[in-house]
Design a protein that fits this description.
The protein is α/β, with parallel strands linked by helices. It has 6 helices and 5 strands. Helix 1 runs parallel beside helix 6.
Length: about 160
């Protein structure tokens, strides 16, 4: 499903003359790989960031230490800063960020395994959605990518 939507997204980006970038944590580049499988994506895709470690989120995307300390890497606030930071760092019109807990370990009562935040930034506007996925690690990663593609499509067609 996400591959068909990815094709539509590339068409929309080309039509609007938008460039795009991705900032990924728990998906480890899977979103970028999904989008790069679309022929013609090179006309719109700037670069991608796989910022698994907090230090990488800070250094490459400008996520604030205070944000990570207060809310954690898996938070609405971090996903928001990741999206805006990626757009700025790549000089892109659109950015999507994903941060979450793919498991099997790392979950807590307030943020169980499968908790994922996805941010979408278009120009000066951004939204972040929280998701709760189930399944094994790879299923959670794939579900995160599918949700990111769906969110991106919805945001692009709403603007």
């Amino acid at each position: 499903m996400s591959k068909d939507l990815a094709k539509d997204i590339v068409k929309i980006l080309k039509k609007k003359k938008y460039s795009i970038t991705f900032a990924e944590s728990c998906t480890g580049g899977l979103l970028s790989a999904t989008m790069v499988s679309v022929p013609g994506v090179s006309d719109v895709y700037k670069m991608g960031f796989v910022t698994y470690a907090n230090k990488a989120k800070r250094k490459l995307l400008g996520v604030k230490k205070k944000t990570l300390r207060k809310y954690g890497a898996v938070s609405e606030e971090c996903a928001y800063e990741m999206a805006f930071g990626a757009a700025k760092a790549a000089d892109a019109d659109v950015a999507v960020s994903i941060t979450g807990i793919a498991g099997p370990e790392g979950g807590t009562d307030s943020k169980p395994v499968g908790t994922v935040y996805i941010g979408c930034c278009i120009g000066k506007e951004a939204c972040v959605r929280r998701y709760q996925f189930t399944g094994e690690r790879d299923e959670i990663r794939r579900s995160s990518v599918d949700a990111a593609v769906e969110l991106l499509y919805a945001e692009l067609t709403d603007k």
